[in-house]
Amino acid sequence: MRFDIIIAGAGPVGCIIAQKCAAILKWKVLILDKRDHIAGNCKDEYKHGVLVHTYGPHYFRTSNDDLLEYLSQFTEWIPGKYFVKSKVGKKLYPFPINLDTLELFFKKNFDSDSAQKFLDTKKVRNANPQNSEEFVLSKVGTELYKSFYLGYTLKQWGMHPKDLSPSVCGRIPIRFNRDSRYVDSTHQLMPKDGYTEMYKKMIAHENITLMLEVDYFEARQKHESKYATVYTGPIDTYFDYSLGKLPWRSLEFEFREYKQEYKQECVQINYPNETPYTRSVEAKHITGQKSDNTVICNETPVDNGDAYYPIPHKSSQDLYLDYEELAKEETLNKHVYFAGRLATYKYINMDQAMESAFEMFDRIKSTHFDK
Ligand code: UDP
User: Fold this and answer.
1) I want to staple 43 with a disulfide (CB 3.0 to 4.6 A). Which of 54, 71, 349, 357 is the partner?
2) pTM of this prediction?
3) Does the beta carbon of 160 lie inside 6 Å of ligand 1?
4) What are the pLDDT digits (tens) for 104-157?
């Protein structure tokens, strides 16, 4: 069959581009996914009657009003109560580190000024940190680094923070106030009926054909696209690993039901130190669902499995840049566009991935439609 555009991957990026091509350009769109569901890793589903995040917690946040307005066509919202604690020793500490964390940890009272002065005595001075260890040490010093960051990062990446870009631990704010939200963004919201429902509505358009459990590399033998293809899978897979395999970090999820209303006090508890898993997630805290039972998901990072995280390390970034050259040729010669976290090997958040879908749509429109 012939479509105007073929989109490989029905995650956030694929769904947004599909919706815009169908609704704005009136193109016939084929969107396919090798998995048996849409929404990519944002998928949510009911387990034991409880709405859970299948592939780990997804906290929607953005400071982009246009993005929020766009998504609001497909969902209503509930407040995003993204509160996380970190278990160090026997205690649960508010995380990211804020004044309450510092008071509990150092057993002192602080205000913003005294906390900063106190940490000035702990910091390992470094105006230009080159890696995540140097970055955290330069902000909070050794004790907090060792308690909250080192073990978590070793587990999460199977790598030492010394070997990871400063941006990895730099994702987490450090606050000198009592704000205990996990992230800093103007809008922190959850889609009222979940992510999967939101994406279902997004791609429910007469111009969109959805095919699930279909491999793109087989599908492209059968289906042609008139104008363009968007590929959102791992970039090394697209090129058949011709330059070597890119390293990816994967995750294993263990879901367990409990016959009680809530099992933990907030949506996410981080375990930097003892356990093999990094965090336990009780999605009920953010979905707003009321039920007598609950489900906890423990998340363990692993080397093998589906690609979840690109590795923010120089050697993998260099290999990606070589793949990016191949990708540019492919775009030029075959009108195949590479978009999203896996195809651009970038550790981006959901809202950044969505913004990249907007940009990709504009690019495709100006190249193939406006001419
Ligand atoms: N991190 C940490 N301790 C924590 C939480 C995060 O050291 O309790 C570090 C770790 O290296 C992690 C990074 O900060 O990979 C980013 O954390 P985030 O929660 O943003 O990761 P994601 O939700 O994307 O897995």
Assistant:
1) 54
2) 0.97
3) no
4) 999 999 999 999 999 999 999 999 999 999 999 999 999 999 999 999 999 999
